[in-house]
Amino acid sequence: xxxxxxxxxxxxxxxxxxxxxxxxxxxxxxxxxxxxxxxxxxxxxxxxxxxxx
Length: 53
Description:
By secondary structure, this protein is mainly α. It is 60% helix and 0% strand. The chain is built from 2 helices and no strands. The model has no long low-confidence stretch (mean pLDDT 79).
């Protein structure tokens, strides 16, 4: 079923739920990318092992 067909047959409650889910996915993706590309701090991972060893 195409997106247009699904939008036409969806009730208002379903459309609202789909919009909320889309917003939540967007927030999750932004948080993921922000964490992935966040500047790394030197003291975060203190394993006690030199990374040059």
